[in-house]
Amino acid sequence: MDDRAREEFDQLLAVFREQSLQILEEMGHDLLALESGADADAATRLRRGAHTIKGDSACVGLDGLTNIAHSVEDAFDAVLGGEVALDRPSVDLILRCLDAIRDAIGGADVGDVPADVGDRLVGELRRIRKGRAAGISKRASAAAKRSELERPDRTSTAYDGVTAKQRRDYVRVEAAKVDALLNLAGEMVIARSVIGQFSPELERALPRSELVNRFGCASGQLGKLIGELQKSVLKMRMVTIDQVFRRFARPMRELAAERGKEIQIEFSGGETELDRALVDSLYEPLLHTLRNAVDHGIEPPEERTKAGKPAIGRISMRAYHQGNQVVVEVSDDGRGIDASELKAKALLAGAMSKEEVDAVPEEEAADLIFLEGVSTAKKVTRLSGRGIGAAAVKSAIEQLRGSVSVKSERGRGTCFVLRMPLTLAIIRALLFNASGQLFAVPLLDVSEIARVKASDIVVLDGIENFRLRDRFISVVRPGTVLSFDRRKGGSGAALRPEPDYSFIIVLAVAERRFGILAQELIGEQEIVIKPLDNQWVQNDALAGASVLGDGRVALIMDAEMVFRKAAKYERGKANSKEAAYAG
Known about the structure:
Layout: H1 3-36, H2 42-59, H3 63-80, H4 88-105, H5 115-129, H6 138-150, H7 156-161, H8 165-169, H9 175-205, H10 210-236, E1 238-240, H11 242-245, H12 249-258, E2 263-268, E3 273-275, H13 276-297, H14 301-306, E4 313-322, E5 325-332, H15 339-348, H16 354-359, H17 389-399, E6 403-409, E7 413-421, E8 426-434, E9 437-442, E10 446-453, E11 457-460, E12 463-468, E13 471-476, H18 478-481, E14 501-509, E15 512-518, E16 520-528, E17 542-547, E18 553-557, H19 559-582
Helix pairs in contact: 1-2, 1-4, 2-3, 3-4, 3-5, 4-5, 9-10, 13-17
């Protein structure tokens, strides 16, 4: 084989690997759906997937892999023909076959399945083909057969014509190239802001000028085009969350079997789209959450039966859009969280003092699970029970500028709610000045804005509050909480008098409402988020920074973390006063 032929063959292998790995992932998902009886069409898709891998692997000379795929195809022929049904050991065997193929082609170099491994798996698959496996009801097999007969695209030729049309309709692009394009689009957004600021200056300098009018029209058109470009690039980065959901079915099935439990996982909202970077970062926190549900939430079958529940525990994963956010809910119908027990564990772990634990309302006690070292586990296992998982979930989601909360009812179940922005790159924000610094806060978090006098702010229980209609809300002073209040004489800054009027920016984060005190409102603007260098800025209440069109730098607030730091600051002040009075 000459160099050119070798290069072409390597390209063919790369295409084969990429497509086969995708098919294998879909087959694993379909196999578990078939086992649970949730999808009668799954057997048809499984046979087609095996047929495609068989044909493609034969083209590149992977004989061992071809034999395994052929035997898997035969097994599903028998299922569709009503000759055989699948039980759990048979499903485990087919999963091992898929793993063997994945191991062979998923490394740096595409290889064949070892001969001894292939022969053993093919031999076991033949026993399935002969009908020695039993399990799932014949009714599921018959339904799969009817579905196969009713489908117009039953033949492999029609199927291949469709895993071919899709290849023509899609172009595979490296993620780094899309990221570079998005970065350029972000810089164009900044340049558009600069041009937008020139327009009013030109109108003042050259009133009634035809040239200025033409410049204004061109600037407006340019702004629209840049906006459309930005949206298009963002859509290129969007993927469905189903890509994450599918990866959990098998590991949770195996974990439940290891714990002697039976579970059924239900997925909904898999078509919900979000930024690819978020999808990549979402797997670990969701994995911890699901492990918590299987390991601690769902009871063993005998315990569930005694409680009047079905022996099979149910776990639900649901995703949906809420404004410019993506919400993912992970819920189970297990034993729930014992609030009093969780408080005791928080005290035992030293995460909170006795006074702090007693002050936590019952409806908020479930949030204590996010404290380091606090766990709902009865005993420590290989995977959980050390009080790390929930804390890791909270930390990971907050790094994505999101938030996580938990709701639980003892004996009924638990629901974790994860909220994240659609994208981490560009947001629409409200700009304002506070304590001599320019800030930005995501517009999604802003509920309303009120104009207030200094006398409108009152102190209740040592905390500044503002009366918003029929309720009081806490007021946060950004400069004080973030420790750089220039108005009060920060490093190198002149003293500034308290203004007669200020603004309260009311933020709604999860189920909390609080106000940020601002001296001046700048307005709304789309900003490009740039990460902050931890070497220079170490404050988890700041999500990043943005360079505006006029060269100024705006610090982007993480509303949830600002609230938490403010609450901690106010508690610290109250404790100091109590200590002073006691002294």
